[in-house]
Design brief:
single chain; mainly alpha; 2 domains; membrane; transmembrane helix; Membrane protein; transmembrane
Length: 195
Amino acid sequence: MNKQQFLNELRAALAPLPAVEREDILADYEEHFRIAAETGHSEETVAAALGDPRELARSYIEGMDPPPFDPTDPTLGGKAAYPYARRPQSHGGITAGVVLFNVFIGVWVLISLVGAWIGLWMVPVVLVGVSIACIATGICVPMIMVKWSLILGGIALIALAILAIIGMVYVTKYFFKGIGLYFKACGKLCREGKL
């Protein structure tokens, strides 16, 4: 298989990917062929060393790195006929950036969000406390009009507290879900170098 046949098969197999990503991958493989030609290697040797274009495309579509070049491949006669191969990418710089961002900014944002979450939970707690105080005061007050005003006001505050608790259950659910998604995104960024 020559260069054009290899690239055509790879282009067809990469069809499910976005055009920009597909062209970037094809440009990378064209670079493989260009460098190999400069070092005196034939297109057929390079194509054999790179492997089956459909398998390479499948690894990109599934989000994995393509298999690395194997210099002991029997099709190459057991020696490295093609010295330039796609090397696994290191994501050390991205990982360091994610860690530094989280240490200097992310932790403080998280602390602020947890503080706000705790503060929001205090709203239903205070409403329950005030409603209990209103009802207790209403029971102890001898005047009938004030008594029933305080008791009914306390019951209304209990209803409001129940609504606030229901709201905070949802806020808590999505708060922790969002934090989980953020940590997953950071992990994916560190592992794969992209979101």
